[in-house]
Write a sequence for this structure.
């Protein structure tokens, strides 16, 4: 077992004392980095990049070489799970991800089965092992998956959507079929994340990117209970320490009180909620991760630093805060603005931990 040289991120997730507020960023390995673009060009396509453990390792490490981040996150995509279910993932140039065989007929839904991650998702599991080896104990590695509801949205719509009309029609007209999709997908996510943990992921995160478009009643029926099942089904300890669990519902600030009870160790926040108010509401139930608006990174280093200081001050003194963005980094972000963010948090956050 490799000893972690920097476990600040893991301690913050468990609300243990830290010397400063740890930082990692959603989509920290991405198109805003010229070195990432070069590797992606070598890979030939985004999907080929995801399916090459060596190239996935390369891009996972790139932001760590530039910035003093406190965690690495596996480079992959949430849609690898439905792809492994046989839906045929592909990326249309300029149009984002699409599926060749979205779920349309009842027999397709009834035939849906959870894949064996050691078979259909072997390339992801191999990437986790390779990244852990390459990190050599420098910082922890985060594994992840999409939430059952978010994955189901793509599986039913066949692509991203502004309205999710097909999903909502199925959800309200045939809740039995919607729950069947969610049930199978939940099993798939549990198996997938546990395989990542077994391969070396030291924390795991569930991205509920589309849960926020639901009504409260629908969220509490079709999204949150399935994430709670995942939390309960995950391997709790590995290599002699707890494996922290993070959930993130974009647009879910209204339901923070319920989310904080789902069994996660930490809750990710988007920028629509003040993190200080969120801390009061969550109390000592969970750590909080977030929550700077990523589009501030399109401005100037001075504006970025000012906003980072504001978020730190809003959270206030004490442990249990992982600094992050409220969503992923824009591809148009100047890399020097990310440097300003990371350096500001490192310099300014120790005062909140004395």
């Amino acid at each position: 077992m490799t000893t972690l040289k920097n476990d600040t991120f893991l301690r913050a997730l468990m609300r243990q004392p830290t010397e400063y507020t740890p930082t990692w960023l959603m989509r920290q390995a991405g198109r805003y980095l010229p070195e990432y673009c070069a590797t992606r060009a070598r890979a030939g396509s985004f999907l080929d990049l995801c399916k090459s453990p060596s190239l996935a390792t390369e891009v996972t490490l790139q932001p760590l070489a530039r910035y003093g981040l406190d965690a690495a996150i596996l480079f992959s995509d949430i849609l690898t799970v439905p792809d492994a279910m046989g839906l045929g993932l592909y990326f249309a140039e300029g149009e984002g991800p699409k599926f060749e065989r979205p779920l349309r007929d009842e027999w397709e839904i009834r035939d849906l089965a959870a894949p064996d991650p050691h078979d259909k998702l072997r390339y992801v599991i191999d990437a986790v092992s390779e990244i852990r080896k390459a990190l050599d104990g420098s910082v922890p590695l985060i594994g992840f998956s999409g939430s059952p509801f978010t994955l189901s949205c793509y599986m039913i719509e066949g692509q991203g959507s502004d309205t999710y009309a097909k999903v909502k029609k199925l959800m309200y007209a045939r809740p039995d079929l919607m729950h069947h999709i969610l049930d199978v997908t939940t099993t798939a996510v549990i198996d997938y994340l546990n395989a990542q943990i077994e391969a070396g992921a030291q924390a795991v995160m569930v991205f509920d990117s589309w849960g926020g478009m639901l009504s409260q009643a629908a969220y509490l029926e079709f999204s949150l209970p399935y994430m709670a099942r995942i939390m309960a089904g995950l391997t709790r300890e590995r290599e002699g320490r707890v494996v922290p669990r993070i959930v993130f519902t974009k647009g879910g600030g209204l339901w923070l009180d319920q989310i904080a009870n789902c069994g996660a160790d930490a809750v990710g926040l988007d920028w629509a909620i003040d993190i200080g108010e969120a801390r009061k509401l969550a109390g000592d139930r969970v750590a909080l991760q977030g929550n700077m608006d990523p589009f501030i990174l399109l401005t100037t280093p001075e504006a970025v630093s000012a906003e980072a200081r504001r978020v730190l001050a809003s959270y206030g003194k004490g442990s249990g805060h992982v600094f992050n963005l409220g969503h992923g980094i824009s591809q148009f972000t100047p890399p020097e603005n990310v440097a300003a963010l990371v350096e500001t948090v490192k310099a300014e956050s120790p005062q909140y931990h004395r």
